[in-house]
Amino acid sequence: MISSLGSSLRPLGLGLLSFILISCTDASEPEPTEAGASINFVHPEDGATLEGNSVVLRLEASGIEIVPAGTMEGGTGHHHFVVDADLPPAGAPIPTVEGTYIHLGQAQTEYELTGLASGEHVVIAVVGDGIHIPVDPWVVDTVRFVVP
């Protein structure tokens, strides 16, 4: 009796599982970002030599709407800065590491980076979706500068 009950539930279970998987996948994936989306550093200029050990990083965006973290609508995202480090792998969330991976979760377009050591620095700006995964296709810009 148990084996006949198990075999009669198997098709229902697989159908229900398929429905759940499809529903979850469709609900959590935003539409891709437009291919023409871009961000650009407005400040500082690439190759600049700074005065002091801090800099205000300013960005402008085109083709993508900058919104608070948690927003999962296609064509939107929020800024992150990667300071003197590598980007995360594709599909992986951008980590939070103080001074290295910086999240601007309130839709900010500028951030003051302080306490920079003397020498050359590279900052990568990358737009992440509502759960901090880089948007697809990637929307990034890089700036290099020197702290005397």
How would you describe what is shown here?
There is one protein chain. The chain is of the alpha+beta class. The chain contains one helix and nine strands; from the N terminus they run αβββββββββ. Strands 2, 4, 5, 6, 8 and 9 form a six-stranded mixed sheet that branches. A three-stranded antiparallel sheet has the order 1-3-7, with no helix packed on it.
In a nutshell, what does this entry contain?
This protein has 1 helix and 9 strands; from the N terminus they run H-E-E-E-E-E-E-E-E-E. With 148 residues, the protein is an alpha+beta fold.
Q: Overall mean pLDDT score? A: 84
What's the level 1 CATH class of the largest domain?
A: Mainly Beta
Q: What is the chain-wise order of helices and strands?
A: HEEEEEEEEE
User: What percent of residues are in strands?
Assistant: 25-35%
List its salient traits:
Immunoglobulin-like, disordered N terminus, alpha+beta, 148 residues, 18% helix, 1 helix, single chain, 2 domains, six-stranded mixed beta sheet, three-stranded antiparallel beta sheet
SSE map:
Layout: H1 2-28, E1 38-43, E2 48-49, E3 55-62, E4 65-66, E5 76-83, E6 101-103, E7 110-113, E8 119-128, E9 140-147
Parallel strand pairs: 2-9, 4-5
Antiparallel strand pairs: 1-3, 3-7, 5-6, 5-8, 8-9
